Amino acid sequence: MYNMRLGIxxxxxxxxxxxxxxxxxxxxxVYNSEALHLLLGFPRPQQIAAFYEGRGxxxxxxxxxxxxxxxxxxxxxxxxxILWLDLTQWQFNxxxxxxxxxxxxxxxxxxxxxxxxxxxxxxxxxTLIPRQLDLHPQEGEGGNLILPRQAKPFSLVATFVTGAxxxxxxxxxxxxxxxxxxxP
Amino acid sequence: MKRVYLPIILLLSFAVxxxxxxxxxxxxxxxxxxxxxxxxxxxxxxxxxxxxxxRGHWVFVHFWASWCGPCRRELPTxxxxxxxxxxxxxxxxxxxxxxxxxxxxxxxxxxxxxxHPYMDRDGLVTEAWKPRGLPATFLVDPQGxxxxxxxxxxxxxxxxxxxxxxxxxxx
Lengths: 184, 171
What we know:
The structure holds two protein chains of two kinds. Chain A is α+β, with helices and mostly antiparallel strands.
């Protein structure tokens, strides 16, 4: 199906979008093709809290972290070309609204307002997936992406531009029925 | 006097530039040369280090953190590489990003005890170097220019990486 769609689109000479509807898996979901491996994990608040507590984060920080929806992203460029990770091209939606990612600027402001020590702010930043990155052939990257916590299932449409000049065939990945991790 | 030194300096400069054009191993990017960002830190005992003191040598600058999975796998290979390469002119600067002394000491003593860590206590030096992520490795040439960047982690003790580093440092 994948190859057939690709072949048809190539033949038509149209801009190509490769769609993939992922299976409904709550804890972890994966997209895998010849060019891209993308794994999304949905850690529970307890797991996330334990990770940051282990780094010595204070209770006010942990309390705020627990209230969010963490998506753990692991990405691997399997192609022989540049693949662009650009979180502004990732759209999260529930059935009735767009979910705005809580980005680095948001967290910088929030931690500053609480006078969180610089080392903890730094560690927190490094655990986030980069907002933008030109992934080189065979390069991998991982990190967290944070959404406001909500109970409804949501979808993600992530677009990856390809090629050093960004003129390559874009890869569009779609995941449905995603859910924030929930403590038992 | 200056006339005597000038050709020697030019020759040395040429030799370094030729070496910097060596094709790197897979996963190592050749960068447009640019001056290394400031790097002035202390080790676990409070002893100061400044990158400038290693001018005249290739310097392997490595950023890591104990919570980072690829860092944990890479550090023992870094140690194995270093045990062979330290006598060959390469300098190694291993920098922990934003963790405390206890964490770094207990982690490295079980993972790679021969490595000598420098502490980027607030993480600001790491930020200034703009790594793509952690772990991050940069190779700085004898003139203090950043020439290569490694993408993610790897086994630095593998033959192809050892040979690459040797090609850089060999006279």
